[in-house]
Amino acid sequence: MVEAARVGDVLRRITRQEVCRLAVELANIDSPSGQEMGVGEFVFDWLSREGFAPRKLALDENGPFNVMATLPGTGRGTSLLFNSHLDTVLAREDVWLDPDAGNRIHHSSWQEGDRVYGMGIVNDKGPMACWMVASKAIKDSGIRLKGDLLLTMVCGEIGFEPVDEFQGGKFPTKDRGARFAAQHGAVADYALVAEGTSFGVAWVEAGKAFCKVTVSGGGTSYYTPHYPPRTTPAESPNAIVQMACLIPALEEWAKTYEVRHRYECPGGTVIPKVNIGAIRGGIPTKIIRCPQRCAIYLDIRITPVQHPLDVKQELEDVLAATGVMGTVELFLYRPGTEGKGVEPLVEALGQAHRAEFGKTLEKAAPPHSSMWRDINVFNELRIPAVTYGPAASAGGGVYSMLGEDLHHAARVYAGTALEVCSRDRSPGSAPAA
Q1: Does residue 87 carry a catalytic annotation?
Q2: Could you say which of 18, 30, 36, 87 is catalytic?
Q3: Which listed residue (18, 36, 157, 338) is catalytic?
Q4: pTM surpassing 0.90?
Q5: What CATH code would you report for 207-334?
Q6: DSSP state letters, 47-91
Q7: Which end of the chain has a smaller Cβ tally under 10 Å, C or N?
Q8: CATH topology for the 4-205+337-420 domain
Q9: What is the per-residue pLDDT across 387-407, written as a single tens digit (0 to 9) for each?
Q10: How far apart, in whole angstroms, are the C-alpha atoms of residue 213 and residue 243?
Q11: CA nearest 373: which of 48, 96, 81, 124?
Q12: For the chain, which residues make up each domain, given as ranges?
């Protein structure tokens, strides 16, 4: 354990002004998923200036890269890895996803009083700035930790997945981010994934089963003047009309799905939601013909105990019950995970949280443990991981953070690192698979 006086020295080096300034600088570098090179270079240069000797870990020499640096320990101590992602959600051209995609809140950052604005601040450059400043404070204090402190800024956490003809470099996948980094050297005894949790902790997250449901028309692409008399939507020769019959059934299924598969464990609660994220049918320039194919794409969240083929079967049952002819394709599977062996990290985090706030660390609310975060990667690779950070997540419409909260988070991250990395490590202590 690090002496209280030395902990105090580290915490005094962490100022609200520095954390907020770095967060704004990071979030003012627009970095939609697949376009993280600029912010990657920024953090690489920052780490170099601060004496951390960073390196780049990239799946593609011409594409985005992960950045990793290490504050070396003296040896035989427990190591801790900080992780946050460089990418943000919306590109300016994503107007079919959000008509407001060009708004500056999604692409820049600014501070008014003690509130720092920007989608990138919340997801995820604000928390990243916190542990960057915390790590700098530890290094500048001259404290020599027993265990290594690893810093990883990764691309592709949001990572929109390839499907159909949308393949290749323009449609980056999650595989190039934390997973690639961890399998190429970013390995520690524990990982703290810094994301917004309103200062709660979780060590379970949902997985994903992405499915495509395709329905077919009546076999003939009728020209509009030859469109046959209408009967029922399920019997329509138009695949879009048939899909309109299926969607209400899927919405009803989704309502019961999240209740039936709710998962509670010590690490948090997973409520697996379902979203119809896209629909394709017909050709806008050829609307004189009734389309013979229509597809919807579903983001189906799954718990650590679900099998993706069971989800596919549920969808096939819904399809059969409507009388609409169609197919179900599972085109992406990423398992949800529950961290094993996280207790020492949770204990250290709890100590730092209590020292900062004067109260016990609580579990994060279900939305924070029901999404995908990179703790899934680390826990799947047997690196016990938790997620913890300031403010709520941007997915709920939160686009700003208080500077005070960023300052609190930086101090908690520093306290956690000092505690974890001052402990002796027992060789061969990896948790069971």
Answers
A1: yes
A2: 87
A3: 157
A4: yes
A5: 3.30.70.360
A6: HHHTT---EEE-SSTTS--EEEEEE--SSSB--EEEEEE--BS--
A7: C
A8: Aminopeptidase (3.40.630)
A9: 999 987 777 788 999 999 999
A10: 9
A11: 124
A12: 4-205+337-420, 207-334
